Amino acid sequence: MSDGLNTTVARVARAVIGAGMALVFAYGVFLYPDAPIKTCSSGYCGKYGRAHTAAEFDDFMRWEHALFVVWPAGVVALVLLKPASRR
Questions:
Q1: SS3 state of residue 51
Q2: Hey, CA dihedral for 15, 18, 23, 29, is it positive or negative?
Q3: Which residue, 18, 35, 80, 86, is the most exposed by fewest CB within 10 angstroms?
Q4: Which residues fall within 8 angstroms of residue 31, CB to CB, at 6 or more apart?
Q5: How far apart are CA 14 and CA 33, in angstroms?
Q6: Which residues of 24-63 are buried (b: 16+ CB within 10 A; e: fewer)?
Q7: What does the alpha-carbon distance between residue 23 and residue 16 come to, in Å, rounded to a whole number?
Q8: What is the C-alpha separation between 72 and 74, in angstroms, rounded?
Q9: 68 vs 48, 57, 64, CA distance in Å?
Q10: Rounded to the nearest 5°, which phi and psi values hold at 38?
């Protein structure tokens, strides 16, 4: 019984982690279609030259840092939660 419960918990955990990773990625793709936002002569601009505010730049940088933390941590967690028979 305990083995079945552990398998179910691991399966749910993998689904939640995968969904979280996808949501973080999709958030940035939807909100920043012209990423990366960087400094340019007129302030901040995206790769297609669209102007951005300092607040948008700060938000983009927060998302980018979150992505670089969430994705590697998520990949490690998914590998560790992989069933023992597939390792």
A1: strand
A2: negative
A3: 86
A4: 59, 63
A5: 28
A6: beeebeeebeeeebeeeeeebbbeeeeebeeebbebbeeb
A7: 10
A8: 5
A9: 23, 16, 6
A10: -140, 170
pLDDT in tens, 21-51: 999 999 999 999 998 999 988 899 999 888 9
Describe the strand order of the beta sheet including 51-52 as a list of residue ranges.
Answer: 38-40, 43-45, 51-52
Q: Are 59 and 47 in contact (CB under 8 A)?
A: no
CA atoms within 13 A on the CB side of 77: 18
pLDDT (tens digit per residue) in 54-81: 999 999 999 999 999 999 999 999 999 8
CB neighbours of residue 18 within 10 Å: 13
Q: What single DSSP character describes residue 82?
A: S
